Known about the structure:
The protein is α+β, with helices and mostly antiparallel strands. 31% of the residues lie in helices and 22% in strands. The chain has a 6-stranded antiparallel β-sheet. The chain has a 5-stranded antiparallel β-sheet with strand order 1-2-3-4-5, with helices on one face.
Amino acid sequence: xxxxxxxxxxxxxxxxxxxxxxxxxHYSAQLVAALGATLxxxxxxxxxxxxxxxxxxxxxxxxxLVQIPVQAxxxxxxxxxxxxxxxxxxxxxKLAGSTLLDARGALEQALREEGVALPxxxxxxxxxxxxxxALSQGAAFVPVSVPACEALSRWxxxxxxxxxxxxxxxxxxxxxxxxxxxxxxxxxxxxxxVGADGIAKRTIGVGLSPGDGxxxxxxxxxxxxxxxxAGALPALPAGARWHTEGFxxxxxxxxxxxxxxxxxxxxxRASAFLYAAVAASRQLLA
Length: 286
């Protein structure tokens, strides 16, 4: 087993530090998404600006361009944009002290140096509704908690490892594991039933959210669709719960997982939660 395949032990970080780091990284990710949104052919499911997880670079990485092997990535532990050519880093852009526009300009310059032809207006940031932050009003990125950034990087790395081994590599109807720049979650969708029109009628979403308006901390989720009756939800493993406000999903919060103990116990509990929650969701959709 390589170092990139191992579970990375996660320690507790104060929620306020996690929230600030997560929101700044969420805004940063829009710069990576802009490359796909501007230069890739639009996908019917709006997946062209989304990201995968790169174990080698420990970064969220955008899709490669069609005519030239260049892509952008966001390194979370040390907030910075990466420009890669054939998976080799050719430019690193530190974010602290720059505004979104500054960072976009630096990214555009790095892309041009690699021969990428940009439209006259440059990269276009996706029009997503992001959490409120001074960055949207022209403020600069500021240094954030190093432990928070490192923890968030580990959450994504562990999610890619665990959801990959438990779900996407064993479920034939699971979609690719991708991070969506709108919600910033790393997720897959299992199609339980597909209609004659090719549209999924019953699904199970499985993912890791770095935190949002419902939870300040990262959390694992498994969400059956259509949402079941809240009064019929089955029991879940100890520490997990059903979330029913705004969306319905089995949830295991970061703090509940961290309380399990060191690396092996954290990994085992995350896997056990995913298996149990997917089974419960299938029971509800049957």
